[in-house]
Write a structure and sequence with these properties.
Strand content: under 5%
Order of helices and strands: HHHH
Number of helices: 4
Structural class: mainly alpha
Oligomer: single chain
Largest sheet: none
Radius of gyration: 31 Å
Shape: elongated
């Protein structure tokens, strides 16, 4: 009697072989598609990014130098009258 009253809770979706087959086929298709997509990805970028990397690295170094100078100015170790340090 107890099992009959909670049967809907423990079995919310009836088991169905066609539904399981559809889910399995979908999973296999997506897996194969992902594997093919990964194989087709280029190893290296098509464009040379050396200049972009150098420019970004120099910009980051300049920002780090400015931050260091601001910290020195705040600590009283440098002149704080420069406009970019304010």
């Amino acid at each position: 009697m107890w099992a009959a009253s909670v049967g809907g809770f423990w079995d919310p979706v009836r088991f169905s072989w066609p539904l399981m087959g559809i889910l399995l086929i979908g999973t296999v298709v997506l897996t194969i598609g992902f594997a093919v997509w990964m194989v087709l990805q280029p190893e290296e970028p098509e464009h040379d990014t050396t200049d972009l990397v150098k420019k970004a690295a120099e910009r980051d170094r300049a920002a780090a130098r400015t931050v260091g100078r601001r910290q020195d100015a705040d600590a009283g170790r440098a002149d704080a009258s420069e406009p970019e340090l304010r």
